[in-house]
Give the backbone structure.
Amino acid sequence: MKFVRAGSRVHPCAPWFLENEALDRLFPGGRGAGERNLLRRQKLLESWVRPRSWTALAKRMAKERPGSIAAIEGVGRGDAVVLTGQQPVVAGGPLFVWLKAWTAIAQARRATQLLGRPVRALFWIAGDDADRDEMRTLADPLLARVFDAFDDPPGTRGKPVGIEPLKDDVRASLSRRLVDAWQDEHLGRIVRDSPDLSSLLSACLFHWFGDELLVVDAAWPETRACAVNTYSSVAAEARGVHADLSVGIERARAAGLTTSIASWSDRARLFRFSPESRDRVRWIDDHWQGGSDTWDEEEFSSFVSGNPTLFSHDVASRPFAAEEVFPVLSHVLGPGELAYFACLGPLSARLGILAPVVARASATLLPTGPWPLAKEVRWDPVGSPAGSMDEMRLRLLEGRSPRSGIWPKLWSDARADYLQMLGEGGSFPGLTALSGRLERFEARFRRERLQATAPLHQADLAQLHRLVQLSGAGGPQERVWSPWALARHFQMPDLLVELAKVLDPLDSCHPVLEMRS
């Protein structure tokens, strides 16, 4: 089995592919991985100096990827990287995480040929993120199962999630449930052997891409030690950073973008970090405060300079920190990240010009067609995502009930006659309200009558349900479905291998790929 392009839709990053001078001005480093942008960036990287703490970070990265020692050493000597990343998520997360990593690898290969020198792909795991609810679960809509890496209730925040230990019994149970659902012993072993979510994401990436993808974790103290200059600048110029970011947000809005970040005059773009908490640094009672620590205006920057591992960047300072740690040739981003990067232009004058931004690949995968049931409910699986399953279910039942179209007319006519009769005797109080109540009754009665025919069409409804769920259940498939689950439900163990063969990292459309023999 292989994937064949059946059609295309609008790319989720579509605005970023358009020729738009106003948009271009928001990105000092440029948009896209064109030769001009890459050559200009490579020229800037000639002045990149590896951080003083680089050796310790290189050792940590080599421990994570022993087969990548030569590549890591090359990066330390200035070999550029194409950077992408994501918070750690269960079992490697939805398909879009794989798409980010694959795009970084494909762009690194292309840049290597273009520039005539090695370019590496690097995945930045945001293991310092503390939003547990965003990372703790992964669902299988077709099986109606949710896989949770933790056994406490939702709403727990504060700890860096990537490095929070996963309980042995919870991990063992999660491994068994995933293997039972998706029939992949590799995944079961990966989950059993991963002590935390960062390790789990790293292991999944290694399983998919091997040593071609370097990995770094923002939760490692070695990573944050290398970002000391960025952290110090953000601390010393906290109010200037706020002013620059506010200007950037307004410029992005003026260009017609929906901004995804905010700026506050009383908050620094840093967190006070420990394995137990990640607390925003705030200005409170004439002092900077992070967790239980406080500093006056002058102490803050010097304390950060001497203790960078006690701090962590936020969404606005992270790209600048990453570019201090690594010689970044370009950033591979999803639609939300592109939107917030568009706000960072004014900060470039203060913290350094960011590398060009590149949109990640995107795709929807469909089982082998044709899909007569989809046509019956007036849905084109290639051209658009599915609508509401309830509405499609009713359309199918309506089409299977030849007299169903008569019912609304009979009711409507009867209602009109009844209301006319009531009105003949003069003004009838509440006639309008009665009409509305009867109309709602008619709609409910029709729906219930159609639903009563469902047992007669159970097999077709189940088949339609499967196609709707597999295609994304009305949303983007790549944000819903795990690659492991898709491989299982498509009965295609080499699904990712085949997907990589047909994707184009420069494609400005969202391809819809059909599985064919």
Observations:
- The chain is about 50% helix and 15% strand.
